[in-house]
Records
---
Amino acid sequence: CRGLVDCFLIVKQKEEDSCVLDTHYNEENLTFTVSNLFAAGTDTTAATLRWGLLLMAKYPHIQEQVHEELSRVVGSRQVCVDDRKNLPYTDAVIHETQRLANIAPMSVPHQTSQDVTFKGYFIKKGTIVFPLLTSVLYDESEWESPHTFNPSHFLDKKGQFVRRDAFMPFSAGRRMCLGEGLAKMELFLFFTSLIQRFRFTPPPGITEDELDLTPAVGFTTP
Ligand code: HEM
């Protein structure tokens, strides 16, 4: 069994052999599952990484601090997942990038499966609901400076990494992002490997102040 598709096909075969009718393991679901994984798992991580590099170009003193921490803790060997716990500043920069980049501002639409009253509002069964992640990621009662890039949002006074409940780029609840662990691992490994080897700067003739952080409109925020 080499991966998801093999696993799926093996169960499909078993169910066919035991004459299970009405199975979820059919070709249509296989196609949807694989295409969903591509759609949900490629542009999201790539857009976040691009935001990370743009922010490093705009704030060179922060890029320098990430570089210093990486040189001190990892040196020139390849970064591995286990290094993250020893790189609190870098970890905070990646979290702050995800918060400010806010790449899935409306998460994905859900639909109420029954009538529900939420915070005094009646929502009828079958209503489409968009959970606005922006409202949490930029919540003024949660973040000291919601609209600025500030890695201290994820650091305590001693410079140790702190988790924040309002960090919700992967949404929340039962249907939250299935790829959170994979995405975090990818972002950490790609971001650190790039900063270890390169310096990111604005193009010639452009100052850091001129780098524009206005997001473009898209399903994710490019
Ligand atoms: C920075 C990267 C990513 C972000 C910010 C992100 C964000 C999200 C968000 C906001 C949702 C909607 C959750 C909800 O319905 O409430 C979601 C769903 C999902 N994500 Fe991600 N995602 C990322 C990367 C990935 C990766 C790498 C994969 C897998 C390869 C993935 C797979 C999925 C899947 C399968 C769902 C649907 C889950 C379901 O409906 O039960 N995501 N993601």
---
Amino acid sequence: MIQLLTTILLFIILYIFYNVYRSQISGSTSKINLPPGSFGWPFIGESLALLRAGWDGVPERFVHERIEKHGSPLVFKTSLLGDHVAVLCGPAGNKFLFGNENKLVAAWWPLPVRKLFGRCLITIRGDEAKWMRKMLLSYLGPDAFASHYAATMDVVTRRHIELHWRGMEEVNVYQTVKVYAFELACRLFLSLEDPNHIAKLGLLFNIFLKGIVELPIDIPGTRFYSSKRAAAAIRTELTTVIKARRVELEEGKASSSQDLLSHMLSSSDENGKYLTEMEIANNILLLLFAGHDTSTVTITLVMKGLSEHPSVYDKVLKEQLEISKAKEVGELLKWEDIQKMRYTWTVVCEFMRQNPPVTGAFREALVDIEYAGYTIPKGWKLYWSASLAHKDEANFEDVTRFDPSRFEGAGPAPFTYVPFGGGPRMCLGKEFSRLEVLAFLHNIVTSFRWDLLIPDEKIEYDPMATPANGLPIRLYPHKPIYGKL
Ligand code: HEM
């Protein structure tokens, strides 16, 4: 009851602030040729319509309806959670935003995200962000990461499957893969091995995740409040791990290439400045977040799709068995094996086209921007949409048909397929997730076939694409296969 009253009170205060803000904005923009569109309701703007489209499993509906209503296929204006937003549509919009990072636009995330993550890669801009990306990429990028960590991923994946899948008749894919992805990230970023420690962090992490897409109301009882406290508890845990590692590095008991944590502790910028413990903890929090939910969603949707397309499952199994058969008993996956998984990767790409795990992201206008004959004022937010580009007949012929061959040869036209974004803010974990998803699929497909317990289970975007019931399945183990443990 108290929570309800405080929420209502907060809405009233926000409403008053919003109207003052709106009158200032409309005063200053009244002579500007703004894109067509509507700001919707006070403060919440058109947020509910955007959320509803996601809950109904069709996030692109929000954009389609507005393109149709306002008659502008390239850009429209809206208001989301108190911010004026210009939505740039299709490949032209993606190209514009990805190509103008740090010139006309800069990365921007909604308030709850900024408050929860603190100072880290996604909340800083300019040269500082460039250095941080470069530093993180020298661990996570294709050269360093993929070539060194295929075997480690395979070890963690095999152990996970033995513990959580083997001997089970039924499994909830989303819940179980989430445990896997978190464990893998803890292992590769922090060298954490103790299952109890990982489980403790995992519990805190799940509370933390619930506040990321909430109103940032910091009052006991709200999800945001619990999330902020969980983030603080995770930071305290991480700081203990960071301090211990610092000592190990000083005493020569750990190496600078051991994992992401050692890499961060040992990297300095051109002025010899190192990250503070808080900055390291914030970036690890970010990477644990960015790196485990996205991959969980991708693996879950691929497993759903493979069960719905048995002939595709058979082709994937054939490719993976060829890799297994060429190996000694118990031999782990190598980088070269991952490179051979070409068909499997086209299948993953096609599932990510149909249901992009991340539907889009924001930027902020650094100056007044002229776009498609309209002016987008400085300070406005801009949004690009992966689901819109992926599900447009203009970009993909027979758009609803599942067809992995779209990703053979040169693949889709530039800026039409953007599950990882693009430009200087493109996903840092693209290589990590490719390796993770492929190592998992290799092990699961060569171990089991499966049936969906809820056929046609609805996909909801909240905000990431997730089957409404987490995808419960029934498992049918294969006979032991040569080359596996
Ligand atoms: C299938 C899995 C994944 C998908 C679909 C995905 C998607 C994305 C997208 C669309 C963006 C760009 C957001 C923007 O334009 O602002 C992004 C950014 C980012 N991703 Fe991923 N991601 C995935 C996995 C990962 C993993 C495994 C990691 C970490 C190991 C990661 C770390 C990041 C980081 C740190 C950023 C922010 C980059 C920056 O702002 O400079 N992602 N991701």
